[in-house]
Structure formats: C-alpha cells, structure tokens
Amino acid sequence: MKKKILLVDDEETLRWALHEALSEEGFDIENTDNSVKALEYTRKTKYDLVISDLKMPIMGGLQLISEIKKQNPATKAIIITAYGSIEAVIEAMHLGVLDFITKPFKIEHIKSVIYRVLNDSAILPVNDNISLSKISGNEGQKNEYSDLCNQADVFFAARDATGMANNIFYDVVEIGKLKACMFGSISREVNMKNLDVIVKTIFRYLLKKGNSPVFLLKEINQYLCENILKRFPVSLFSAVLDERRQTLCYSIYGEELTCFISLPNKEIKMLESSPSPLNMFPGIIIMESNAPFVAGGKVVLIRNGALSKVLKSGAITAGRFKDAISDGSATNCEDIAKGIKLQIEGLDELIAEEKDSAVIVLNIESGDEALWEEEMSIAMPVSNYGEVLEQFEKRLSPVVGNDYRRREIVTSVNEAVLNAASFAYPENKKGEVFLKFSKLGDELIVEVSDRGCGFDIQNYVEPDVGLYRDLTKKSGRGIFIMKQFMDRVMIQSSKEMGTMVHMAKRVICNEN
What we know:
Blueprint: E1 4-8, H1 12-24, E2 28-32, H2 35-44, E3 49-53, H3 61-71, E4 76-81, H4 86-95, E5 99-102, H5 107-119, E6 146-147, E7 155-159, E8 168-175, E9 178-186, H6 195-207, H7 213-227, E10 234-242, E11 247-253, E12 257-262, E13 268-270, E14 289-292, E15 298-303, H8 305-313, H9 322-325, H10 333-345, E16 358-363, E17 372-380, H11 385-396, H12 403-424, E18 431-440, E19 443-450, H13 479-485, E20 488-494, E21 498-506
Parallel strand pairs: 1-2, 1-3, 3-4, 4-5
Antiparallel strand pairs: 6-8, 7-16, 8-9, 9-10, 10-11, 11-14, 12-13, 12-15, 15-16, 17-18, 18-19, 19-21, 20-21
C-alpha cells in the first residue's frame, strides 16, 4: 500500500518539484499552499507523513503540526524552512517533528530523510536518530554538516537492552576539515522527553558560532540551567578533531564517562575528565585539554559510572581494555565496540553495582582521499644504505619537484631511519623499519615506524643548536633535525611497540 504524504508550502516551484520527485518514488502525494486547507485535508484523510514549511500566512508550520498531532498523534512530520532558529527547532522537536531541514536542500537528501522517517529503518530509536542537516540563524547564515552517526565504518554505538544505557545521546558531524562529536547521558530516573534532541540541536546550532569544546559545553550548560527547572546531573563529552593539526581538543564532565584514544600503533590513552556534572550550576568553570592523534586512531567512550570509578582509583588499569580496543582482527567500529562490552561484562567482581553500559567508537580517518601514497620497508641491519637513499629520492621525485624541499624530506626520513638503526635494533639484531609516504591536500605526510625497544620521550632534552655532536645521541637521534626541516613532527615511543615518527611537510601544488 502506498504511503500517503501531504506537502504544505507556499513556494509553488519547490512544492511541485517535491510532488513530482516523490510521485516518481511511488508515494501518494497531496499538496497545498494553504495551511488551513492542509488541516482540512488531514481531517478527511489519514496521512503517514506531513512535510510543511515553517513560515506561512495565517497558520505557521509549527501550529499546523500541533493541530494535526491532536487529531492523529501517529502522523509523522518534517519541517522545511529558509530561516531557522534554535527556539523554533526545539519547539518543533517537542511537538514530535522528526527532522528539521533548511532550504536550499537537495531532492536526494530529503528523499533519504523521508525513507528513514517512514520506514523506521535506523537501528536507533527515533529520538537518537534525528538528522538536523542544517540549522541557520535569523541572519541567514548557513553551515553544511555531514552526518557521521549512521556510517558504520566511521561510528558505532553499542548499548544494553536494559534501561540505563538507553538514556544516552550523541552526535557526530563533519564540518570541512573538522569533526565535532558530542556524547552525553542522564540518569534513568529522569523522565525528560526529547532532552537528547534538544541537546543535539543546541550542539549543532552552536557549531556555527564556535567550535571550542569549552564554548559548546558552557553554552549547553547555561541553556539547561536556565530552561530546565528540575536539577539532575548531565554527563557530557564534547570534542573537536582537527585532522590537519593532528589534535583532539576535548572537555569531559560527569563521573559516568570514560574516554580512551586508541592509536594505530596499539597504544591507548585514557583522557582526563572532571567528575562535576552539568545542569547543576550555570557558572561552573569548564576546562578543555588537547591530545595528539593520527589518522587511523579511534575515540572510545564508555558510559558506566562503576567502571569509571575503578579506573580512576587504579583498581584496574586502562591496559585491561587494550586488547579489545586495539584488536587487529576487528575490522570496524562495531566489532571494537562489541569487544569492549564483552570486556566490561567480564568485570562483574569490580562493577557489580552497575552492569549496564554503553560504548561508542568513533573512527578518526581523513576525509580526503590520498592523492598519492607509497609504502616501503627496510630490513635491519641495513645492507646497502646508499640504495635506500636512492629509493627515497626515486619515490619522492614525481611528487616533490623542488630539489631543496625534497632533500629536506629525505634528510628527515634518513634521520628517523638512522634513529632505528642506532638503538631500535642494537647489536645487529634483525628487524624492519616501515615507511609510508602520502600526500593529502597540500601536505606530504611521512610515517616511519619500527618494532624495536623504544626510548624515553618524556626525558629527552633537545640539544643545543651549537653542539652538533649531541644530535647523534641514541635517546632520540635526529629529532632536532627533523623539527628544523619539517613543518610538523610527532613521535610516539614505548618499550612494547617501538617508535613511530610522524612528519608533515607542506608541498606547493605547482611543485608536482
């Protein structure tokens, strides 16, 4: 049986374009430019979905949806508008509107939204799956968002079937070269309909004004304190991932949340959080921190208060989850999230008071496809180092035409390889050094990694520029030189995983 849709918009061209496109999809479409007539239609016919403009003469879209819901609460609704505001969006969500889309939009986009709304095809409940694709203020400014929540290879949330883990909300969007994510939870005793939608709506609305986690959490907390009279704790994590700068800027508030960063070399780091919850006092000080990350890393968030307590007390260590988080056999976020949940379930003796949990895994990958990528490996000990240098030159020549720039890159790679040769595999111990070159945008990215003994980064002291003999110290040979020649250098090292050197050099396009 065909699904019945009512289109209400006083913009004739758009209305008929939608009518035509949706008719071709097999929907039974009725349309009108008059909201009063639309209300009369709904009294005679039961529609599966109403798509209405926000601002119309006589009766606006929100009033229309409100009246339709009184007649038939099961009727689903989508609002489209040229100018939205945070107040209008929140009011629409309270009415049960399932999506709020700002003009102009692509027909294919609204088709996908309609199919999702009508078919309930999403894994998550409706309130956790609202896609506020664009929200603009009265000034007419618009931001384009790419919604990542439904991409299983990028983002996955694993919950328990019990009530506690269902009281979570989250959002992940991509804005240019930045990814912004938000994850929060409230107590299961709190009955706040659409609170998750309201927080996510505010989150996306604020992103056009600033992308600092401090700003986002401060504004969200201020709104909650001013508009929700009943006080209950809200745990909230907000982060902005800058892939070009290889930095995660984050704020975590609430004792229920635990956050890990997983790096490609199987190293994991637990991020510091504040036990203070939001929605208690409007003036609390919000702090933020930064952590380095590289492409291929993952952000792992766990909502379990008992687990957070035992981790912070040291009763168990972050290493307990290392295998589950960095499991090489896990091919996507879903597998990792399920593996972590199994680890949590195995901690009954430590977290008996709270077995319910939710796990979120976000994959940090570059949105740009590599314009060029090469990989090579060097056996240790090196048999013919001159030949290795020739390989560097040969592989870089087609990409970096400027001889001076190319030599700087080759010299930096040379220092990283010599670093491994000097101490990663001592006394002719056999091993291998892996090199990866890739060009993303106007940057050349180089990764040099080994599986050797590692060194103490924390106690490494950069040498005096006048004392060149110190540049060959085994505790980090050539770091100074790399930092002089490359635009950005980050080094990770541990006894378990060896050393990985990440370097970036800006390469002007006309050099290629």
